[in-house]
Task: structure prediction
Amino acid sequence: MIRMLIPLGVFLALVALLVASLQTGDERKVVQSPLVGKPVPQFSLPGLHDPDTITSRADLLGEPFILNVWGSWCWACRVEHPFVERLGREAPIDLIGFNWKDEREDALEWIGRFGDAWDRHVVDFKGKVAIDLGVYGAPETFLVDHEGIIRHKHVGPIDATVFADLMQRIMELEAQAQ
Amino acid sequence: MSAELGQISLILALVLAALLSVLPLVGAQRGNEALMKLAPSLAIGQFVFLAGAFAALAVAFLRHDFTVSYVAMHSNLLLPWYYRLSAVWGSHEGSLLLWMLLLGGWMLAVAAFSRSVPRPFTARVLSVMGMISVGFLLFILFTSNPFERILPGPIDGRDLNPLLQDVGMIFHPPLLYMGYVGFAVAFAFAIAGLIGGKVERNWVRWSRPWTLAAWSFLTFGIALGSWWAYYELGWGGWWFWDPVENASFIPWLIGTALIHSQAVTEKRGAFPAWTVLLSIAAFSMSLLGTFLVRSGVLTSVHAFANDPERGLFILVFMGIVTGGALTLYALRAPRIMTGEGFDWVSRESALLLNNVFFTVSAAMVLLGTLYPLIIDFMGWGQISVGPPYFGAMFILLMTPVVLLVPLGPLTRWKRDGFMRVVRPLATAAIVSIVAALLVCAWLESWSLRAVTGWIGGFWLIGGAATFGLRTARASRSGLARHQWGMVLAHAGAGVFLIGAAMVEAHTFERDVRIAPGETVEAAGYRFTLHEVVEVKGPNWRADEARFSIHRGDREITRMAPQKRHYHRGGQTMTQVALKPGVFRDLYVAMGEELGESGAWSIRVHIKPFVRWIWGGAVLIGLGGLIAASDRRYRGKRKARESAPAAAEATA
Amino acid sequence: MSCQLSVVSKWALVLALVPLLALGSAIEPYDFDSEVQRQRFKSLAEQLRCTVCQNQSLADSDAPLASDLRDEVFRMLQEGRSDQEIRNFMVERYGDYVLFRPPVAGHTILLWGGPVALLLIGLVAAVIVIRKRRTAL
Result:
């Protein structure tokens, strides 16, 4: 009798796994970055408004900052833009734009249309630095602490929930720094 | 109007299915003939209404009724009529309707061709299938109604996914579902046997032709899907171990084990409980496949629109169907009598080994497919399990099978001598090795994969031929159909093996840059690009590259791959140009235009023996169908036919 | 009305996804130094998973990122890096997720060992069954 129950047991375990997986389906679609907890990789990139100014990793260290990856071709970036603007206004730390695989004219036109929310801007038209950052789709948002360690990464557009979560994390960072 | 008629038809089909799932079963339990006799009529009625619903959706597509949301989403004014028809099953809702129509069809067939089977048994079978019907109809009506309206409807619809605008898409899903759904028959027979309390040899005999037919359709469906992916996706691959492919392959592997264990149970009465379990498993894996494809728990190239709510419904349904069946199994299986004994070397042992390897393979594919979920569940991060894992494991598990297959049919039931089995195969073994080496020398292909592929392939074909010749010589009437079927299927496995090994070992593949007037050399063939022109189709325009292909001084053929742009959806798609051949396919696909120079990136493949992959699969499927048509399964009916007819006459 | 709304939003979503779902294959002519290098490239591109795609390898995807990553693989091959170094490069940036052949480690023991264990159990069970059935001869 016990032996005859084995198939049922295996099946129930399978169903349990599938029920659990059904609830976490959306989370699994996001690829977790192995770079969280690690230092921001070395880079030096030109600015968007000022192509001659080169910003490197060393220039950003010392203060925590947010790095927001976007592109004018990216539809979801428009969706998140109001929240990026709120971040720029309300977050007490620098908001760095990271313009990815774009054209300068397109990016500037986009900003002209939707507004410049960022404190500072670097561009990675070739996408090389983005690979070092483990970027795989726009928009993505990184939170980096004053020592240059990536503390958090969000993949996908920022909405109200994500915004609140980000602000919370920023406040904690600030509190720690003091 | 047609959408509303379809909706009403569907609801009426549900009512009949609900009656069918209860009344004949009650009749069978109480010995009430009148209730049992309702089963065939209800099955016929259900099929009529399902066909009505299906026709209503087809009419909505043909008439461009864009107020039906499903039509608006998957069709437009430019779409040719045959793709509008196949668009009926081009997405989730309609494909479920097709699934139901086929289930209704199988039930109709069971009702029509089971006169030899005792009435209580047929009544139970149809009731069990009626329960499955009820579940799926509720699923369609509550979560996936294809007849939903949007008012006012749009003037024109969107587009059917261009990948699906293809002849492969017209035939692939119906064949695949015929297989998936067909396993419901084997399931219902097993459950009917368990409910009846006496699981005896007879139920297996009645179930065998149905199982063989379903398994054959599944074989055709998978093969067609593979062929379709090969020429339509533009990558030149024929199997990707994608979760959705695995979802159809797992039931196939279980089904393969099942048709072999049914042979033992029918002939010798051995492993009856195991055969019941496999019958339950085959259909359960079909349901699991449906869940995986439609719930979005796994990431796949060809998933339907993801919807966790639908996923939950299928999961609950699967929980009831499979959970109920396995509970019944746990309660009743201990009472199943075991058959006669057998020795180490015997047909029974050989088929037992077959079952070990095929069920473990199915478990391996299932484990690999679900492992990312397990890792996630345990909070161990994220991993991917892909072709390198499945390929290596599958070869590992199938190598012993290839070695053993020719031995099985030559082994006698009950008790045999090892040398008596092996000796007749000595010739086949020697011939297959020598022939393989000769072929490889002629083709100049000395890679390990190619050589072992040819040896294994010839060994399977030679083994099947040896069995065929010996059996034909021994009996005056020649081979019976079921023996013909087996010979064909085993030889087909050999043909498949050769194709797969040669493609994996010796595909020539190059991505090159080419401008009009230039020539590319590829494995002895010269591809010359003459021009790139713009051409127009009914609902697309395309850049078409015109090639001529030479071998030596002779022009073999002309090829014209396209890069298509679909007007409505705005998608771009590669239309591969193929020159099929028995010994090799030539394959050209267009990439991008490189700058303003007029040069293009193109991909050239030479695929040796790739047709043998599908040729082998078709032989395997045909073998199954021929075996299913064996006289043994019909013989009994003729003898008994007069009895029920007389009973009906008096009634 | 709600029906219509849902359809409209679905359309918007589908339109938004079009660039991601660009159909077709990744066809790029690279100038390889040798046939061996070509084979290594092919094999690496087939073993690495494209992170933006729906379960495709780098070799099969024509997403822009996949193209960038193929360029990286090609560059590293030209620099003379080993296959393992190239795989590590990807794993450091995107995690184990990019490997279609999962590493053999603690958390994948069941994956790699499971089928072998099942086969052994199956064969032992078969032996037990046959021994038992022999007594019924």
About this structure: Residues 104-137 of chain C form one domain. Residues 3 and 119 of chain C are 52 Å apart (CA to CA). The radius of gyration of chain C is 23 Å.
